[in-house]
Amino acid sequence: MAVQDSEFGRVLRAWRNRAAPEEYGLPVAPGRRAHGLRRPELARLAGVSPDYIAQLEQGRATAPSAHVLGALARTLRLSRDERRHLFRLAGLSVTAESPAGGTLPDAATRVITRLPASPAAVYDVRWNPIAWNPLWTAVMGDPQKRPQRERNMAWRYFTGLPTRVVRGEEDRRRYEETIAADLRATSARYPRDPGLARLIADLLAASPRFREVWETTTVASYERESKVVAHPELGDLHLDCDILTTQQHDVRIVMYTAAPGSDTDRALGELTAAARRAPSGPAEDAS
């Protein structure tokens, strides 16, 4: 069924215009005329092309998929009612999208934006980053610079993409087992989620190591880890990673902290001060 052209484009444009770019870690240059997200910015965050966003807003794209609608809803941080409205305007029921798609809760956004001295991000249950604060970008790199699939935490690791995280052999083994076990547990909660099923199938095809740990049938949750992050300017950062899961929306809030008074704590202070002096720009790696 075709979208209701004028209304769909109108609400999409309005929701794009109300999205504050600074909440996505985007630079806000003096004299910027756009109050919300520009089309290329929304496209990059949602994993679609800027031209397709223009087609949707102008009524030239008539059949957006549930996957695209879900990505737009998550990126624009729509409420449940807004999400339903977006799907209805496109002629789809909300159930057409996987239940694991999730909605980014306002509380999760508040948590990461009010932790300016701690790198923090929000991930969906498939381990795709859906929001992050400026210090996360400064420490881990900017997820926006990667294609959609390459932002995924499990995909990046098991396919050997660049990462700033440095792990020893034992830490690698434990991380691999935990991420595979976490995905197995998630697949049981969302057995009809096509995006999750596709991710697991692609990992099984692409990574012998993922196949090995997947076949152990272990079930667990990824909740914490101590990490060393090799920062390109400040050297090794020793960080504690804690992961909190929201019950209603089933998203993960990932927070990094350093021991008070440590070299890493002082380095984070430098990065925080730099982020306050200038807008955060694109970085190299996201992990």
UniProtKB/TrEMBL annotation:
A single MF term (Gene Ontology): DNA binding
Record-annotated HTH cro/C1-type domain positions: 32-83
InterPro entries: Cro/C1-type_HTH (IPR001387), Lambda_DNA-bd_dom_sf (IPR010982), MLTR_LBD (IPR041413)
SMART domains per the UniProt record, alphabetical: HTH_XRE
PROSITE patterns cross-referenced by the UniProt entry: HTH_CROC1
CDD domains according to UniProt: HTH_XRE
SUPFAM superfamilies cross-referenced by the UniProt entry: lambda repressor-like DNA-binding domains (SSF47413)
Top-level taxon in the UniProt lineage: Bacteria
Identification of the protein by name: Helix-turn-helix protein
Organism: Kutzneria buriramensis
